[in-house]
Amino acid sequence: MVHYGMTKTAQVAVSRGLAESVAGTGVTVNSILAGPTASEGVGVFVESMAKQKGVTKAEIEKQFFSTVRPLRS
Q1: How many CA atoms lie within 13 A of 52 on its CB side?
Q2: Residue 53 is inside which H or E element, if any?
Q3: Fewer CB within 10 A of the end CB, N or C, for the chain?
Q4: Whole-prediction pTM value?
Q5: What is the pLDDT of residues 15-65, one digit of tens each?
Q6: DSSP structural state of residue 54
């Protein structure tokens, strides 16, 4: 998912650049980087992966959240 990570990093870089360019003006710049969303497209992608690997959709989701997006404390 290189494209996903690259676009998230680009969003942070643009926000930081904007924040630095308006420093001292009273303008605040924030970045909100939403995580994966259970959209129709994601559902199709997960189902496709499950079918390829011969496992359930639930198993693919569990694997994703335990290896790609583990909970941080």
Answers
A1: 7
A2: helix 40-53
A3: C
A4: 0.51
A5: 999 999 999 999 999 999 877 778 898 899 999 999 999 999 999 988 888
A6: T
What is the C-alpha separation between 36 and 23, in angstroms, rounded?
A: 31
Specify the residue for token string 């690259």: 6
Question: Which residue in the block uniquely carries the two structure tokens 């360019």?
Answer: 21
Phi-psi region of 26 (alpha: psi -120 to 50; beta: other; left: phi over 0): left
Q: Which of 5-9, 12-16, 48-52 has the lowest mean pLDDT?
A: 5-9
* Token pair listed for 54: 């011969």
Residue whose entry in the numeric block shows the structure tokens 């079918």: 51
Q: How far is 65 from 38, CA to CA, in rounded Å?
A: 13
Q: What is the DSSP letter of 3?
A: H
60-71 average pLDDT score: 80
Catalytic residues: 4
